[in-house]
UniProtKB/TrEMBL annotation:
Thiamine pyrophosphate enzyme central domain sequence ranges: 74-192
This protein's name: pyruvate decarboxylase
Substrates-to-products reaction catalysed: a 2-oxocarboxylate + H(+) = an aldehyde + CO2
Molecular-function annotations in GO: magnesium ion binding; pyruvate decarboxylase activity; thiamine pyrophosphate binding
EC number: 4.1.1.1
Example of a GO cellular component annotation carried by this entry: cytosol
Quaternary structure annotation from Swiss-Prot or TrEMBL: Homotetramer.
Amino acid sequence: MKESLLFNAVVNNLEDAHELIDTAISTSLKESKPVYVSISCNLAGIPHPTFSRELVPFSLSPRLSNQMGLEAALEAAAEFLDKAVKPVLVGGPKLRVANATDAFVELADACGYPLAVMPSAKGLVPEHHQHFIGTYWGAVSTPFCAEIVESADAYLFAGPIFNDFTTVGYSLLLKKEKAIIVQPNRVVIGNGPAFGCILMKDFLRALGKRLKCNTTAYENYHRIFVPEGPPLKSAPKEPLRVNVLFQHIQNLLSSATAVIAETGDSWFNCQKLKLPQGCGYEFQMQYGSIGWSVGATLGYALAVPEKYGQRAIIFLINNGGYTSEAAIHGGPYNVIKNWNYTGLVDALHNGEGKCWTTKASCLTWCIRSSASIDSIPMLTNTDNTILLYIHCFQVGCEEELIEAIGTATGDKNDNLCFIEVVVHKDDTSKELLEFGSRVSAANTGPPNPQ
């Protein structure tokens, strides 16, 4: 389900340009969402008095909760949760928009409930929190997480988005009457009542001071939890497996790194990564856009140049086709021409670029990605320009992967590194197989009548 356009300013004349542009900017700042401004090409270079005079200071009035509504919502929510035997907390992606992540953690600290996140909220809550139990994603949740959430007699969802992807084909075993849904400006308790004009961060922070501490559900989780073991050890020169790749990616993570997870099977494999304190994480599933991560990696790097270094690593998992799509709906269209991805360097270079190539690795100034490949960029940053030097490697076994990662992370390497990982076409996570069958069942059938 795609959200409607927040604001679109179409500037066709100078008379209302100032008002339209200011409205767009203020709307974006207030809602923490993108807006669009389009300006007719014949206007861009025309001077106008409203833009040439001394600048008028721009300010936004602070948004405040309705205090009477806030008090009523707190009273109802505290009564609802305090009478529950094993309540839980689940964080959603709108925690970021509402600027409420700190308030949510404060609530978790105070109430003692187990703390889970929806898949697109991974990284918004510290995974080292003493009551963190993982990702709640229905049938493809972190092990033992769904069992605790869905068996609870009350759950508070802060900033959730429920669509066919986040609900695994609308198969979540949740009941509305057990839920408190907290959105950026609204609180709904069970089947009612609903309270509007309440800021999420105000509600969560105040609720933590009202609730009784209840660790029952977390104690239940602790009783049933069994740690995961490492993947089977690879034989010498054995074809590389995805679970082995991710063991090495896990070892790369630190407080100075961030993960950008691509659409597809990387959704599930990246959810299993244990994020160190301070490690960033970006994950987009509202649109399910294949290829999103490549542009997002550049955007993320340019947004925080002072935090990270001058290098990024992109792992492109080449399984020879649309394996993630095939898990949902099989067909010959999921088998595509398998390009020589690292060979694109020679075509771009053509004897004139600032790069060199060998059979094992190559260097060039730009990168292109195919939508047919599940890729996982692991970001530590790129340069502040679009012209990037890139080391390229193609690996097919663990020994080659270790060598490529060693080069990518070497002290003398300040370049973007592109590692193509060749794996078997059927090498997928068990979560993708479960997800694919459930989403396929939910989306198969005649169209809904209009």
